[in-house]
Specification:
Elements: H1 14-27, H2 37-53, H3 57-78, E1 85-89, H4 99-113, E2 117-120, H5 126-134, E3 139-144, E4 162-165, H6 168-177, E5 181-184, H7 189-203, E6 212-214, H8 222-235
Parallel strand pairs: 1-2, 1-5, 2-3, 3-4, 5-6
């Protein structure tokens, strides 16, 4: 291995280039649907640079795990790209008797009848209601490993469309990349985080425009109060534009 690896792969030693290209060809299926050999080569080159740069082991672990999580998730979703989907967000802490659970359950049942599949975070509360309402055949669950609270619900936990993540950022990417719309029920920090990130991605053109719906249970005022905050502190002070209100 040379003392330095230039950013430009073409400047690498011919011997290393040939070995990488041979490895890519060896792994490529004969009946491939899409030719990604150039991108696979780039990923291998990046991996070699990780070792050559002697990154901290923790940093290398993040890179390795993130790639594995995304590859696995994309493989699961690949067979369903022609199906419309709605990602549901909301509190993990509400019981089945709670009006918001019942609202999410009914919403998922109705949206599944319209031909949509449901994506949730695979946990309890609103996520469980979403998977229960949609049913196993119409559900995805993208779980996050947490030291407390989060455990996969029984409606998606052992399903082939269950995806387990260690990182929030890989999970969040799949939530929005793979969906046709996003529905937000009342929730905690995580729900607000997802809502604000979704709106930011649409506002800045980093994802396709998609419906973003904020849902209260009958008589609820969670999102109405949220709107008052948006009007007073963001819109009136010029921190967002008037047209940004139309994103949801």
């Amino acid at each position: 291995m040379p003392k330095t690896l230039p950013d430009n792969f073409d400047a690498w030693e011919p011997k290393i280039q040939k070995q990488i290209e041979a490895l890519v060809e060896l792994a490529a299926p004969a009946d491939r649907e899409e030719d990604n050999r150039d991108l696979v080569k780039q990923m291998i080159v990046t991996a070699l640079k990780v070792e050559h740069s002697q990154l901290d082991r923790g940093d290398a672990k993040i890179l390795s795990r993130a790639m594995r999580e995304l590859r696995y998730g994309f493989r699961i979703f690949k067979g369903y790209r022609d199906k419309r989907k709605v990602t549901i967000f909301g509190s993990a802490r509400i019981p089945k008797e709670h009006p918001e659970y019942k609202q999410a359950l009914n919403f998922s049942k109705q949206i599944a009848k319209q031909g949509f599949m449901i994506i949730t975070g695979a946990g309890p509360g609103v996520m469980k209601a979403g998977n229960e309402g949609a049913g196993k055949n119409n559900s995805f669950g993208i779980n996050i490993k947490l030291p407390f609270e989060q455990a996969a619900n029984e409606f998606i936990g052992k399903d082939p469309r269950f995806i387990d993540c260690r990182f929030f950022f890989t999970r969040k990417l799949m939530f929005i990349k793979e969906t046709s719309a996003a529905a937000f029920f009342p929730g905690g920090f995580g729900t607000h985080d997802e809502a604000m990130e979704t709106l930011t991605l649409i506002q800045t053109g980093k994802c396709d425009v998609l419906p973003v719906v904020l849902i209260d249970s009958p008589g609820g005022d969670y999102w109405k109060d949220w709107q008052k905050y948006i009007d007073k502190h963001l819109l009136k002070e010029g921190k967002i534009s008037p047209e940004d209100i139309d994103l949801y």
